[in-house]
């Protein structure tokens, strides 16, 4: 540009006296500015001559003052008079910066051609290759699927980049690549909207996250990444989850369609991860071999110690168990004994509701019956009616059972019918009360009741009684005429099939259900009492140890007291049991039973837990069961009863016939040490003691060693050995039952056991069995020969062994209660003599009510 310098100094001219002569004007060529000054910037008036070169600019003289550019900042304030025309006009010509519009860029973006991917075909991959989103492996393009869903980005729309190979689609998500490609593109616009149709198929139908089990059921192919259920390592890490590892084999074993279905059930499930080393648990049965120590310097000539070899223990020999035959004929089979056992356990459980006396309950102890003569087992004619020939309970006991059941049935109306059935029950009760324990009259009343119930629909009808024993003389009287369909009843054993249906009828009575609920509450109270009593005894013991040094006898008594509380709790909880069942079955098919203790023992155990040491201590009077009575094996609540064949290596008492080894019959093990040996024998026989060291509880210091004498000539030392079986000393121990449907009690209650209530029902859990696997339980094996029964699983065998050990511990305490202290026998004889003298030497007569019980009133 060119600016005249003379105009800039027009107002600064010197006075005429000192004015110098006019100098000639000089012009210089100034290069053009690289910045554009149009159209908003214009400092001065530009020349109209659009020459290629800028116009010449006049230079100032050497003595001319320096002019300031109108664009530079003015350091001092100047008046408008000192500003030239250009400077005054410069602010007016300045304009705002124009806004930048995006219309052009949007138009250009919409018309921009799409980017084409370069071909990656090679000799190894003629169709091209891609990297699978799941396994991150290089795969051929022909064995993969591209997601066709278009993802809306910030300024553009692009297709999803996820690509999956054929194996990952099948194993991880249960989708078939060929089916998706063969399906093609659906013509409906609602399904194909927002998808790229260039691939020839649609790989995603919806944006909603659907569980894998549902989209497999609907047969809809979806991209797992767009769906939100991708289980690759990266997608799971974004959700804060660990990698799944190899779950393909686990899915095949469980029968799942894919890994995604398994993760739908448990999102945190993981398998074996690569690069993590050995992840399978070590074998607990394998003994670790210690590593040899490292030798720091070989120049010292110090030999390293040899590694310690694992100790190889000798296999424990099988103990010899004494198998005593129960005094019942071999024809008295399991099917004949089970109804009697069921009636006994039901009556003992609900004795209060049935209004049964203690004398009548004691009669039920003899499952084999109270027969007055021996039954010939070799008589084939008696084999059909052996249970009738053996007899059962007395007439008054049977009368009390029938009255109790009919009373419960009457009180449960209207569940069991209307007015006619209720009147029939009342008439039967009155007739049985007036029968004077005549069996024929009692059956006549039951027959009339059955006829009335048969008139209504869906009413249980009990069968006819069993036939009377052979060679029985029947005396017909006016009061005992044959009114029951011409059937004569001369033995209480004939009515055993009648009582079981009556029990089934009263199971739904409200009184039975209330008794179950009340029993659960009382059981919790008994457990609480045992804990409080044990805590108080331990605190007293700690104080006693600090004050004086207790001797061995004092420590033994302390341990016996704690053990007595534990066993008393086990005995007490039988009164609140929900059901009864056998202990279990061994490897040879023998079935083991442990009948519950009597009512008198339950009351004594409850008194001990309550703190009454007198009633909960030693038994007195007729409550004492001597060793002779226990060894006679007539009271089935005092021994382990076993149905089956005697083992080949088993012993029988001296004088017993050992020819019936291959015959199934009832056997009894009545000594606590023999029961422990039996449990040890089962454990070793089935290999339960090889995997881990199992030790029996040996805290029975009060055990009578003389009662463990073996009559077959075995040494006493063998009976005192410690067996290698599980220690059972917890409150959750079980000693008499397991879950089964042996008795009506199992039908009456189908609820789960309450916490803290030991109902003796559950089997050994995974924690009790040492956390061992239950893989052996999945394969059901059968006994050899014609026996259709399945073999017990290892867990069932452990439950049986544990139950036998617990029963032996309880039996130790029960036997201790029945033993007399030294010197007590003489003291009791003196007291009885003093009582006789005080009565004047006369013996008082016993009233009929006390002799026959309350049912005879």
From TrEMBL:
Protein localization: Cytoplasm; Nucleus
- Tagged with keyword Coiled coil: yes
Enumerate the residue ranges of region (Disordered).
1-20, 72-120, 271-313, 695-796
Q: Name one GO biological process term.
A: regulation of DNA-templated transcription
Xref: InterPro entries: CDCA7/CDA7L, Znf-4CXXC_R1
Instruction: Give me the stretches of Low complexity compositional bias.
Output: 757-767
Coiled coil ranges (UniProt) are 506-544
Q: Where is the composition biased (Acidic residues)?
A: 769-779
Q: Respond yes or no to whether keyword Transmembrane is given for this record.
A: no
- In which residue ranges is the amino acid composition biased (Polar residues)? 101-113
- Which Pfam families does its entry note? zf-4CXXC_R1 (PF10497)
**Zinc-finger domain ranges (all copies):** 131-182, 222-263
- For bias kind Basic and acidic residues, which ranges apply? 78-95, 695-707
Source organism superkingdom: Eukaryota
What is the designated name of this protein? Answer: Zinc-finger domain-containing protein
Organism of origin is Russula ochroleuca
């Amino acid at each position: 540009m060119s600016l005249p310098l003379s105009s800039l100094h027009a107002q600064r001219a010197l006075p005429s006296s000192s004015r110098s002569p006019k100098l000639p004007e000089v012009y210089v060529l100034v290069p053009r500015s690289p910045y554009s000054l149009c159209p908003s910037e214009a400092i001065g008036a530009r020349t109209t001559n659009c020459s290629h070169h800028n116009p010449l600019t006049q230079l100032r003289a050497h003595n001319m003052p320096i002019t300031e550019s109108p664009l530079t900042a003015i350091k001092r304030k100047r008046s408008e008079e000192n500003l030239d025309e250009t400077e005054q006009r410069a602010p007016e010509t300045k304009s705002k910066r124009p806004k930048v519009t995006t219309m052009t860029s949007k138009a250009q973006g919409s018309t921009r051609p799409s980017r084409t991917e370069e071909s990656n075909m090679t000799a190894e991959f003629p169709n091209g290759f891609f990297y699978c989103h799941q396994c991150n492996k290089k795969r051929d393009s022909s064995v993969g699927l591209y997601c066709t869903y278009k993802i809306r980005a910030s300024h553009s729309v692009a297709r999803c980049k996820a690509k999956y190979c054929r194996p990952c689609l099948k194993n991880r998500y249960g989708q078939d690549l060929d089916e998706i490609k063969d399906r093609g593109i659906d013509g409906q616009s609602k399904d194909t909207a927002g998808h790229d149709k260039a691939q020839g198929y649609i790989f995603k139908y919806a944006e909603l996250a659907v569980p894998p089990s549902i989209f497999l059921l609907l047969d809809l192919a979806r991209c797992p990444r767009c769906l939100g259920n991708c289980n690759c390592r990266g997608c799971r890490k974004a959700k804060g989850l660990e990698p799944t590892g190899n779950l393909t084999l686990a899915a095949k074993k469980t029968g799942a369609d894919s890994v995604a279905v398994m993760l739908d059930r448990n999102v945190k499930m993981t398998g074996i991860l690569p690069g993590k080393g050995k992840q399978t648990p070590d074998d607990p049965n394998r003994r670790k071999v210690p590593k040899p120590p490292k030798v720091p310097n070989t120049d010292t000539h110090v030999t390293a110690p040899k590694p310690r070899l694992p100790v190889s223990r000798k296999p424990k020999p099988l103990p010899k168990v004494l198998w005593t035959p129960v005094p019942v004929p071999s024809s008295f089979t399991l099917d004949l004994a089970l109804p009697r056992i069921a009636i006994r356990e039901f009556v003992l459980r609900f004795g209060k509701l049935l209004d049964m006396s203690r004398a009548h309950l004691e009669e039920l102890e003899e499952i084999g019956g109270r027969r007055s003569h021996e039954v010939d087992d070799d008589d084939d004619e008696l084999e059909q009616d052996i249970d009738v020939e053996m007899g059962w309970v007395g007439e008054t006991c049977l009368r009390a059972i029938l009255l109790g059941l009919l009373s419960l049935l009457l009180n449960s109306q209207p569940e069991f019918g209307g007015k006619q059935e209720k009147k029939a029950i009342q008439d039967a009760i009155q007739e049985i009360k007036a029968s004077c324990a005549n069996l024929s009259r009692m059956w006549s009343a039951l027959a009339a009741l059955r006829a009335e119930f048969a008139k209504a629909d869906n009413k249980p009808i009990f069968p006819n009684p069993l036939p009377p024993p052979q060679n029985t003389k029947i005396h017909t009287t006016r009061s005992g005429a044959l009114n029951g369909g011409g059937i004569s009843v001369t033995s209480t054993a004939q009515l055993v099939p009648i009582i079981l249906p009556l029990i089934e009828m009263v199971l739904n009575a409200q009184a039975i259900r209330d008794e179950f609920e009340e029993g659960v509450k009382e059981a919790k109270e008994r457990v609480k009492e045992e804990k409080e009593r044990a805590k108080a005894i331990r605190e007293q013991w700690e104080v006693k140890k600090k004050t004086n040094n207790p001797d061995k006898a004092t420590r033994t008594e302390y341990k016996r007291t704690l053990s007595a509380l534990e066993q008393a709790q086990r005995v007490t909880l039988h009164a609140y049991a929900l059901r009864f069942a056998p202990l279990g079955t061994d490897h040879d098919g023998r079935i083991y039973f442990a009948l519950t203790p009597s009512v008198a023992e339950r009351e004594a155990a409850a008194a001990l837990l309550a703190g009454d040491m007198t009633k909960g201590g030693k038994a007195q009077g007729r409550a004492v069961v001597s060793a002779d009575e226990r060894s006679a094996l007539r009271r089935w609540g005092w021994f382990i009863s076993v149905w089956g064949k005697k083992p080949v290596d088993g012993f029988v008492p001296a004088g017993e016939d050992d020819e019936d080894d291959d015959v199934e019959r009832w056997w009894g093990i009545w000594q606590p040490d023999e029961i422990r040996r039996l449990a040890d024998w089962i454990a070793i026989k089935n290999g339960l003691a090889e995997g881990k060291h199992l030790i029996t509880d040996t805290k029975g210091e009060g055990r009578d060693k003389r009662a463990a004498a073996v009559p077959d000539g075995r040494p006493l030392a063998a009976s005192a050995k410690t067996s290698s079986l599980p220690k059972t000393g917890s409150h959750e121990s079980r000693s008499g039952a397991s879950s089964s449907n042996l008795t009506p009690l199992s039908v009456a209650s189908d609820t789960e056991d309450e916490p803290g209530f030991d109902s003796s029902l559950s089997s050994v859990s995974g924690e009790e069995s040492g956390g061992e696997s239950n893989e052996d339980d999945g394969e059901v094996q059968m006994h050899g020969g014609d026996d259709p029964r399945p073999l017990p699983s290892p867990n069932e065998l452990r439950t049986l062994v544990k139950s036998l050990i617990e029963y032996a511990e309880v039996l130790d305490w029960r036997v201790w209660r029945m033993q007399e202290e030294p010197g007590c026998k003489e003291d009791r004889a003196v007291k009885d003599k003093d009582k006789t003298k005080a009565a004047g030497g006369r013996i008082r007569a016993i009233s009929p009510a006390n002799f026959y019980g309350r049912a005879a009133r």
